[in-house]
Amino acid sequence: MLLIHPLLAANGHRFEKRHLVLAFIILVGNAGGALSPLGDPPLLVGFLRGVPFFWPLLHLWAPLLVLAVPVLVLCYGVDTYLAKREAQPQRQKLRVRGGLNIGLLLVLMLAIPLEGVWHPGTVDLLSAQMPAEHLAVTVLAIGCIAISEIFTPKSIRAHNRFAWTAMREIGVLFFAIFATIGPVFVLLQQADLDVDHPLLWFWASGVASAVLDAAPTYLIFFQAAGGNAVQLSTDPSHLLTALAAGSVFFGPVTYLGNAPNLMIREIAARRAVKMPGFFAYAGVMILVLTPIYILMSWLFF
C-alpha cells in the first residue's frame, strides 16, 4: 500500500489518474496480498486460527491470476489511451530515502507470524485476558512507530505528503462499524449455510466482506464452517478456498471492504486526485469485477 506514494508521484504530471488508483486498490490493496497471511487481514485471521502459513500460496495463486490478469490488461489499455492525450513527463531519478523505516517494516513482518506459532500464555490487561503474543506484537508495533516518528527526517514525510489524518478517520469509522455490526454477525452465525457447496460460501463471504470489512467476516464464516483449521485446510471440497477467495477478492468492491481502500483513497485525494464517491466507486467496481467473480465461480467452485 505504501507504493501508492511513488505511483502518484511518478504520474503527478498527468491530469487523469483515477484509473491507476482504482487498479491499485484492486491489485495491491486487496488481491496482491492473497498469497501470504502478511498480505491480507482475512488471511492473517486464518493463520492466527491455525491455517498453515503457506496455505494461501498453494490454494489462492490460481484465483489471483484469474483476477489480476484481466484487471492489468484493462488498466493498461485505459492507461495507454489516456497517456497518448497528455504531455510526456520529464525524466526523474528514482531515489529511496528513509532506510530506517524499511528495517522497521522488516522487523514487523518477522514478528507478526510469531503470533501464530508462539503462545506463551495470557496476561491480565484492564480486567481482561489477552494473549501474551498479541500484547508483545502490539507493543513492538508501537515501539516501531515511535522510533520512526523520532528518527525519520520531517522532509521525507513532507515530500510524501504524509499525515495521520487518514489513519484517524479510518480508525473512527471502523470503530463505529465494529461497534454496530454485532447483530449482523449474529444473523450470519445463525444462517444455515450448506458446507457442501463452496460456491455459496464464495459469494456469501464475498458479499458480506464487501460491505462489512473482510477480516471479521472471514472469522464469522470460519467459525460457522466448524473452526477446525486442520480439517478445513485439507478438506477436498475447497470450502476454505472459497471462503478465503471471497473474503479477499471481494474486498475492493466498496471502500468499506478493506481498511486500505479508504487509506489509499485519502492519500490519493490529498494529492489532488478526484476520487469517485462511495456509490460511484462501488458501481465501477461491480461493473469491472462481477464478470471476473463469475469466471472464478465457474473455474474453481
In short:
The chain is mainly α and 301 residues long. The chain folds into 2 domains: 4-97 and 163-300, no CATH class; 98-152, no CATH class.
Architecture overview:
The chain is mostly helical and 301 residues long. It has 2 domains: 232 residues, no CATH class; 55 residues, no CATH class. It has 16 helices and 2 strands. It has a two-stranded antiparallel ribbon with strand order 1-2. The mean pLDDT is 84.
Ordered list of secondary-structure elements with their pairings:
Elements: H1 4-10, H2 18-27, H3 41-48, H4 55-83, H5 99-111, H6 114-117, E1 122-125, E2 128-131, H7 132-151, H8 154-159, H9 165-180, H10 182-190, H11 198-212, H12 214-224, H13 229-234, H14 239-249, H15 259-270, H16 278-300
Antiparallel strand pairs: 1-2
List keywords for this structure.
single chain; 301 residues; mainly alpha; 2 domains; two-stranded antiparallel ribbon; 16 helices; 66% helix
